[in-house]
Structures are given as C-alpha cells and as structure tokens.
Amino acid sequence: MFKSFFPKPRWFLLSVIFWLILNIGLWYSGGKSWGEFFGFAQGYADAEAIIGVSRFWQASALWFYVWFFLSTAIFWLFWKMIAPHKWLNWAIWGSGFILFNIWFGVQVSVALNAWYVPFWDLIQKMLTNNGGDISQLYQETLTFLYIAMVAVTLAVVNSFFVSHWVFRWRTAMNEYYVQYWDQLRHVEGASQRVQEDTMRFATIMENLGVELIKAIMTLIAFLPILFTLSKYVPELPVVGYIEHSLVWAAIIWAVFGTVLLLVVGIKLPGLEFNNQKVEAAYRKELVYGEDHADRAAPPTLKELFSRVRKNYFKLYFHYAYFNMVATWYAQLDVLYGLIVLFPSIAAGKLTLGLINQIGGIFDKVRESFQYLISSWKSIIEMLSIYKRLKAFESILK
C-alpha cells in the first residue's frame, strides 16, 4: 500500500513530521522575518495584513512561498540521495503542492474572515445612521468577490491535480501487486483487491490526509485569533466567566462529539470488513459458475447470499443508530456557536461585524477539532479496506 509509492514509508512519514515541526518552529521563532536578508523590505513581517486580495502577494506572503519551495526542495534532495524511488517526485513534489494548496485555502478563509468586520460594521453603521454611501457597499462586495475568485480558481486547480496524484498512487499499488500476481491470485477476492480496493484506498487516504492537514493548519491560523477575540466573550452560558472562553467552548464540544461517535460507531469497521469478505465469496462462486457447470449450484449460492444478507442487516441496524446520533449532534452543532455568544450579545458587548467574525472563526476552529467526527464514516471504510489489503499483502511475507 505505502512502499509502492513512498520510499521506506515508516521513516518517510517520521521525516515528514520532523521536517514540518522543524519548519513551523523556525518560522514562528523568527524565520518569517529572515526575508530581509534576501532583499525584502525592512519590517515586512510585522506589517498588518491587508484586507483584500492583495494580501496574497504582499511581502510576508511572497517570503512564505519562497520558504515553502526551498524547504520542499531540500527534503526532496535528501530522499533522492538516501532512497531513490520511481515515484519520488510525485510522493514529495506532488504531496508538497497539495500541502501548499491546503495552506493557501486556509489563508483564503483568514482573508474572508478579516473582511467580515469592516463589511458588517459598515452595514450596521448605515442602518443606525439612516443610510450612507452605497458605493462603499459595492466596493466591499468587490473585495469579497476578488478573494472568492482566487479561492474558486485554486480549488479547481487543486481538484484536478489531486485526481492525478491519487491515480499515480493507485498505479504504483497496481504495479506492485501485479508483479506478485502468481502468489496473490489464489487469495479470495484477489481481483477485487487489485482493481477496486487500491483505487478506494488511495482516494480515501488522500481525502483523510488532506482534511487532517487542513484541520491542523486551520487551528494554527485561527486559534491565535480566537484567543484574542475571547476578550469580547468573557462569559459562557451556564459556566459563566472563563479565561479564553471561545477556545474552551470549541474544544469541549468537539471532544464530547468525538467520544460520543467513537463509542456509538465502534462496531462498524469490523462489519464493513466482513461485508467485503462475504461479498467476495459470493462473487467468486458466480464467476466460477460462468465457466464450470458444477459450480454456482442454487443451494451453494443461497447459502453464500444468506451470509451477505445477514451482514447487511447488521450493518443497517448499527448504521441506523449511528446516523441518528451523528445527525442530532450536527443539528445541535448549528446552534451551539450562536448560543455561546448569547451572554455577550445580551450584554451589548458585540457589534454585528464582531458577531460575524467571531462566529466564522469559532466555526472554523470547532470544525477542525471535530476532524474525527466529520471523517468517521470515511475512516470506517478506510480501516476495512486496509484490513483487506493487509491480509492480501501478508501472502508475500
């Protein structure tokens, strides 16, 4: 699954984590200002971020782009010397490009969130002062539109590239399994595992990995802002006054939902795994029946199909209460972010712009903490595929 696409997967993953932590540490311990040594204007790192699309090419952003490229190049050169691999370029440069797009998408969210305050405060000012200059509304709307155009363009480019990246990983797995087909073809459902499971595994792993990295980057970008904005919301419902209230409110709610769905859905990965086993056995007998008259007899097919039905009925039952709990949590989640602000709204401590900004940031942070909740069904499917491919690969040991 992994060594077909990544060089020495375990060490590669550990090196990725180490390299990310090192770069983040260097960046936030002064690295973001090192661009001054390469000709960037003095003090650019401390300049206030522009509210508008031009923030993406102001000096601090341009220095980050240079830093990211150089960091990726150094990492690629290291692995090219240590462990040359057929898919090294896609594994590192491809993954790096996806990682950069995720980071850029988070920055777009930050830019849009910063736009909320002047726009909604402008609306509030016009409503309370019996009107204002309509051209200001059009100007603010254009600011949003320019940022949104960047976001949409990036999303389309990233989606196109990710599709190719996933197919390369699938190709690598396919080549690896086909190389050992004489040993693997006797495993039940071997054809399905090579043809279908490799595709699904690469796609799900990519989606889960992207969402995890996005959640981490969102927390890095928005948590400091949420810490600052917590001063406008000193009290929470029921709890009362608490330091850094919004951060604690997001963490506690996300942990509660994660533990809840983890307990409720604990049986689903095993059932998904069993489901593929009984489906493979039924499919295999039907395929044999196409070429051999003594195979796929009605009693045999009836027995095999009864196992398929039994497992599906179990899945339906367990998914029923899992979906019920997940849906109720999602509905309560919609209200939770607003209810948290009720004491401060009632006390008149928030403007319309602050309400929208805090609500947007709070939702981003809460969603990031809820990564396991939003990805749980994909994780269940991925675990079942992983079990099948792991059992498949065990033949080669």
TrEMBL record:
Keywords: Membrane, Transmembrane, Transmembrane helix, Transport. The chain crosses the membrane at residues 12-30, 62-79, 91-116, 144-167, 208-227, 247-268, 312-330, 336-356. InterPro entries: ABC1_TM_sf, ABC_transporter_sub-D, SbmA_BacA. It comes from the Bacteria. It is a multi-pass membrane protein. Its main location: membrane. GO terms for cellular component: plasma membrane. It is found in: Cell membrane. GO terms for biological process: peptide transport. GO terms for molecular function: ATP binding; peptide transmembrane transporter activity. PANTHER family: ATP-BINDING CASSETTE, SUB-FAMILY D MEMBER (PTHR11384), LYSOSOMAL COBALAMIN TRANSPORTER ABCD4 (PTHR11384:SF59). This is Microcin B17 transporter. It comes from Acinetobacter qingfengensis.
